[in-house]
Amino acid sequence: MSLDVENKNQLSYAPMTMQADVDLAGHAYTAMSNVASEPTADQSSNARPSSVKTPLEHFISFQRGDSRLTGALLLGSLMLEEEGELTLECGSTYGAAVLLPQVARSAEWPQFLTFLAIRSFIFLLLGMSVQFYLLHLLSREEDVLNLFAGQMHLCDFGQGVRGPSGSIATPPRTYDFAQWVSRSFARDSLKALFPSLADDIDASMDAGEYALESFLARWICCFVFMIATFQELIAVLRTCWLLYVIPTNDEPWICCQPGATEVSWLDRVAVRIAGMPALWKMLYSVFLVLPKFGIWKLCCQTGIGYLMETSTIEGLIVNSVALAFILNIDENLCATLMSEPVRVLMSKCESYKLYDRSQQENMSNSEILQRFSTKQRLENISARELCRWLPGKLFASVLVTFIFMADYYSRNCYTQDGVRVSRPLFLPKANDQTMWETLLPNFFVMEAESEPIWTMPED
Known about the structure:
Radius of gyration: 35 Å
Strand order of the largest sheet: 4-5-6
Structural class: mainly alpha
Shape: elongated
Number of helices: 17
Order of helices and strands: HHHEHHEHHEHEEHHHHEEHHHHEEH
């Protein structure tokens, strides 16, 4: 290929705009490389200054700048989105009970929407009643019926420590409560029938010990259970925050979409979260938020207690995922019993933004690069920023797990010889619990007999 020096210099110094095509830059660079391989007499006098970029170098510089701006735009969007938005529980009776009355109020209470709102409260009450009753039955099983069966609390009975019979539990002698009590009953029955052979029966019939198979499995399964229920706590907190941040005004939750005249009627209507009167906020706080939090607390309290009383690994794994289904009853009711118009309204409801979108619209490219690219480099990280990126929900889940496990130990166990063992068992005077005894067992204690039916054997 032969090109004269003048043409070569034109290629070398030709201006390259930011929108240059990559193919043109590539061809130009190839041409210059070929010319460079054919030096001429006056090449040294017309050499390209080192400060002037080739077309390909212009293009690469543009690509890098464009990638940096693109990364800054992505980072800025994600950081603004992290400030959050609040939504209703669109697949739950709780969300329907918030949305439908406000839509009906905004439309001045027409018959159709009014009856949909009334039905949403009926389904809400049904769901809460079923959830509470099932959890009440589990609590009654643990705190009442197990005592009548003579089942002591498992606490930290495990391998290598003394069990409820007073002997050291070993792997071959570790049983769940049903097996242990059956073996103990068979041994004690033979001793009652043949009292003269009591020593021989004790020597030949070992009932074993009621003990936990794996402490690690217990801790992991309690944490897995708490993870399954933690989303419910987040939903409660987000509902509280939503009631706090939205204006305390009589604002409409429905409006017409501007310029949408050639679409269906439904598409012309926007459903959004807006302000509501103070009376509605108070009603939702008392009759929706508090019961929802109480059901979550009771589920965690009962579920952790149930897992702590489970001695087998298989039972721990199965129950850790099975107990959380109670909190999903409201979603099942919504999916099965709610009518199609309700599901349509809930799917159309827009979230409530906690950040101002005008920040994105009013910033120049240089400001975007400065805030979301330069300041976000790893060498500019601060202790505050580092703490911000720690997994807060993970730490909160672990903390809540410890709180409910500590509550179980404080109510049912005491320390003997460095090991947490079951408190003495007293038969309750009633075979049922009141609502307050179920919800707040630390403050409302059931009446019980004065004489214990079992105490931990001494050394």
